[in-house]
UniProtKB/TrEMBL annotation:
Keywords: Amino-acid biosynthesis, Cytoplasm, NADP, Oxidoreductase, Proline biosynthesis. Residues 2-97 form the Pyrroline-5-carboxylate reductase catalytic N-terminal domain. The keyword Oxidoreductase applies. GO terms for molecular function: pyrroline-5-carboxylate reductase activity. This is Pyrroline-5-carboxylate reductase. Residues 162-260 form the Pyrroline-5-carboxylate reductase dimerisation domain. It comes from Anaerobacillus arseniciselenatis. Its EC number is 1.5.1.2. It is found in: Cytoplasm. One of its GO terms (cellular component) is cytoplasm. It catalyses: L-proline + NAD(+) = (S)-1-pyrroline-5-carboxylate + NADH + 2 H(+); L-proline + NADP(+) = (S)-1-pyrroline-5-carboxylate + NADPH + 2 H(+). Catalyzes the reduction of 1-pyrroline-5-carboxylate (PCA) to L-proline. Belongs to the pyrroline-5-carboxylate reductase family.
Length: 272
């Protein structure tokens, strides 16, 4: 089985490196290309057995499963370019949220799916959000799930929760990294700790926190209850958070969804 990757930017790169590291595929099974072809050849320098294709058409012609890792507004023109090189046995996989599997099916003559990855997949963990086109057979779904399971937990989602699910799974690491960086910088501003030491302590805390949740030792509410003893320091900190957070996350979801609907409108114009 040959796996094609069109677009070797941030997420395309993560998929390539994760698939290889997890042994989901060997480098020789991968066919990659990028608009700036030098970036694709840079990956070949790292994985010599990997095949670089000069054009997306070559990838479509040679690969059995083609992951498309380009920006949303680049999809429609790319799909129309690829369509003559796709047959009913191939599977095109989108990694972007504003384009539905139904829209993909209107352009290409093959099977389609959507897999929204997360940067956490680079550590062979976290979730990938999956949706399958109506022409995917049970064996197609099994093949894709097996591939994705090497680097993440695939979770099938309905279209109406695509954006919020992606906010949590895919954008969430960036959101919480920002909050953690603010936490670290405030510690350095308000106390004698330096930023390097605060970063070390915070990073170890996050790793330990994740393992507590992973092992089911605590839920999010029970962890707060266990650490926040009556009259203690943690309780005072939680009090500040409750007062200051307010509608911050409501506004975050409103903003991400506004951008999402704007992208959907522009994409719909292309597909219509």
């Amino acid at each position: 089985m040959k796996i094609g990757i069109i677009g070797t930017g941030s997420m395309g790169n993560i998929l390539i490196e994760s698939f290889i590291e997890s042994q989901a595929v060997t480098p020789s099974q991968l066919i990659v290309t990028n608009r700036t072809i030098e970036k694709a050849y840079a990956l070949k320098g790292k994985f010599p057995e990997l095949q670089v294709a000069e054009t997306p058409k070559n990838v479509a012609n040679l690969a059995d499963i083609i992951f498309i890792c380009v920006k949303p507004l680049q999809f429609h023109p790319l799909l129309t370019q690829l369509a003559p090189f796709l047959n009913a046995d191939k599977i095109v996989v989108s990694i972007t949220s504003p384009i539905t599997v139904e829209q993909l099916q209107t352009v290409v003559p093959c099977k389609v799916a959507r897999v929204i990855p997360s940067i956490t997949n680079r550590a062979l963990t976290g979730t990938s959000l999956v949706s399958y086109g109506s022409t995917c057979s049970s064996s197609d779904i099994e093949i894709l799930n097996s591939l994705i399971s090497h680097i993440s937990t695939p979770v099938e989602i309905d279209e109406n929760i695509t954006r919020v699910s992606s906010d949590i799974v895919s954008c969430g690491p960036a959101f919480f990294s920002f909050l953690m960086q603010e936490f670290i910088e405030a510690a350095a501003r308000q106390t004698d700790i330096n930023e390097e030491k605060a970063t070390q302590l915070a990073s170890e805390m996050l790793i330990g926190y994740g393992r507590l949740i992973e092992k089911g030792i605590f839920t999010l509410p029970s962890l707060q209850e266990r650490v926040s003893v009556p009259g203690g320091v943690t309780g005072e900190g939680i009090k500040v958070l409750k007062e200051e957070v307010g509608e911050m996350f409501d506004l975050l979801f409103q903003q991400t969804h506004a951008k999402y609907y704007e992208d959907i409108r522009k994409i719909k114009e292309q597909f219509d």
